[in-house]
Amino acid sequence: MRVFSTLLIPMMLTVSAAAQDLDVIDEAAIEVPDFTEIDGGMASYYGNELAGNRTANGERFDPGQLTAAHRTLPFGSMVRVTNMSNGDSVIVRINDRGPFSRGRVIDVSQAAAREIGMHRSGTARVKLALLSDD
C-alpha cells in the first residue's frame, strides 16, 4: 500500500498541475447573437419542385441551403425560426418573397424544414426572431 501511495500521489499532483495549465474558455467573451422577436404564425416549406428556379433576389433556389421567403424582410436578413411544437430552431437567410398562401408568415427551404422537424407535416406554428446587425 505504501508503494502504491508513493506512486499515486506524485501522479495526482502532476495531473492537477497539468489541468491548471489548460486554457479555460471565458464564457463572458463568447458572443451570443442578439435576436429581436418579430413575428409568429404558420410556416410552410418548399423543396425540390422549385430547385434551380430564380428567387426574388436573383439567385438560384437550392433546397439544401438554409434560406427562406418572407413578404417584407430585406434580402440577406438572418432570421431564427423556432418550431413551437418541439422548440427546435434554425437560422435562415431571406432570399425570396412569399409566402403567398393566406395565413402563412414564412416559407423555409427543405433543409431548414428538416432542421426544425416540419418536413413531414409540411407546416408548423413558428415564432420568428430577427438577428441584429450590431
Would you write up a description of this structure?
With 134 residues, the protein is α/β, with parallel strands linked by helices. It has 2 helices and 6 strands; from the N terminus they run αβββββαβ. A 6-stranded mixed β-barrel has the order 1-5-2-4-3-6. A hairpin with a 5-residue loop joins β3 and β4.
Total helical segments: 2
Q: Please state how the strands of the largest beta sheet are arranged side by side.
A: 1-5-2-4-3-6
Structural class: alpha/beta
Give the overall shape, derived from the CA principal axes: globular
What is the end-to-end distance?
Answer: 62 Å
The helix content, as a percent range, equals: 10-25%
Pick out the low-confidence regions.
none
Chart the SSEs and their pairings.
Elements: H1 2-21, E1 35-46, E2 67-69, E3 78-83, E4 89-96, E5 104-109, H2 110-115, E6 123-131
Parallel strand pairs: 1-5, 2-4
Antiparallel strand pairs: 1-6, 2-5, 3-4, 3-6
